[in-house]
Write a structure and sequence with these properties.
Layout lengths: L1 H7 L8 H14 L3 H12 L20 H11 L6 H6 E3 L5 E3 L2 H9 L4 H23 L5 H10 L1 H14 L4 H4 L1 H6 L1 H4 L9 H22 L43 H10 L6 E2 L21 H4 L11 E2 L26 H6 L3
Protein name: Lytic transglycosylase domain-containing protein
Pfam family, one: SLT
Organism: Undibacter mobilis
């Protein structure tokens, strides 16, 4: 079926072979599904490895900003064959990552436009985020939830997911006031009323789900025009103001939404969560978008995913990742959009 071809093949209509090939190799190396990495790249950069955000230093397929990239190379560069680059990067007491030699710094940052490197890092990010969310929510995250962690940081995503399950009708703007103030289309309806936690969750995960669906359908039809890079727009029309009252493993995907540039959005949303970040409990090959203070993308995303100076360095312990469940069962139609806790292998391999 179409899903299997998207999940397991680097040949995707409308996607340059060198891009899909790089993503396919990253999926094999990190264990994250091909369609997750493809969808995330589609959202972040419209599959343009040269994409540059207008409001930040975010660049490349997955829109790394300078500090996030330097942190990533410092932490995991050696395992990726970039030991020389990793050795050139130092971490200051404030949590900033610096390179003494300007020429070397430029060379390191230039690697963001290498599709293979960007895809590898994004796959590793998803893997560590999945471990973190499994630990804090008690279930394997769906791919839409993984994207929410990419977007909001895993701590913010974990709080949102847990709130959906415990108090879904709560005011999301009250939970994330800074993010809501800066991103009214996400947290408020057109009439000005605040959205619930569940509605915000659905709105964010729908961005991923609908883009993924469009890519799956694209396998069986001619490629559609691709949005301009850096817009952060999803294929389709604006979502309605309302959303399902509670999450369900079998509910239909919400209508497509348009969200401002994700690089800038991430900085604002993360700023709403300013508690000390967790510390990784082990050396993380997969902590590709993270610094040494967090398990995946945590509260220090505020400093690393923005271009401001003086990142904090406080830390708390990261909960030990729980075991990731696995089970074999046939792919069902709703599995295109939601992955239950029993679908762990599908999450990491692209197979249901």
């Amino acid at each position: 079926m179409a899903v299997d071809r998207v999940a397991n093949s680097a040949a995707v209509p409308g996607v340059a072979p060198h891009i899909s090939g790089a993503i396919s190799k990253a999926a094999e190396s990190t264990g994250i599904s091909f369609q997750y990495l493809l969808t995330t790249a589609r959202i972040e950069s419209s599959l343009n490895p040269q994409a540059q955000a207008a409001t930040s230093s975010a660049k490349g397929l997955y829109q790394f900003i300078d500090q996030t990239w330097l942190a990533t190379v410092k932490q995991d560069g050696a395992s990726l064959g970039l030991g020389q680059y990793a050795d050139a990067i130092t971490r200051t007491a404030s949590g900033r990552y610096e390179v003494a030699d300007p020429a070397m710094r430029s060379e390191i940052l230039k690697q963001r436009t290498d599709p293979a490197m960007s895809a590898m890092m994004a796959g590793a990010l998803a893997r560590t985020n999945a471990e973190y969310l499994t630990a804090v929510t008690g279930k394997v995250p769906t791919e839409g939830e993984l994207y929410t962690a990419h977007f909001l940081g895993p701590d913010g995503a974990g709080r949102l997911i847990n709130a959906v399950n415990s108090r879904g009708n709560a005011n999301a703007a009250a939970m994330f006031p800074a993010a809501a103030a800066a991103n009214r289309p996400i947290f408020y309806n057109r009439d000005g009323s605040a959205r619930t936690v569940t509605e915000v969750y659905d709105r964010l995960t729908a961005k991923f789900d609908n883009t993924r669906l469009a890519l799956v359908q694209n396998v069986d039809r001619p490629p559609a025009p691709i949005d301009q890079p850096g817009t952060g727009h999803v294929l389709g029309a604006q979502a309605p103001d309302s959303a399902p009252s509670a999450p369900s493993a079998t509910r239909a995907v919400a209508a497509p939404v348009k969200v401002p540039d994700t690089a800038g959005m991430t900085q604002v949303l993360a700023a709403a969560d300013n508690r000390p970040p967790p510390v990784p409990s082990r050396p993380l090959f997969a902590a590709m978008f993270s610094d040494g203070e967090r398990g995946a993308v945590s509260r220090t995303v505020t400093s690393l995913w923005s271009d401001t100076e003086g990142a904090g360095s406080g830390a708390t312990s990261l909960p030990a990742p729980g075991p990731v469940a696995s089970a074999d069962r046939p792919v069902r139609m709703h599995d295109l959009f939601t992955d239950s806790a029993a679908r762990a292998r599908g999450l990491f391999t692209g197979r249901g």
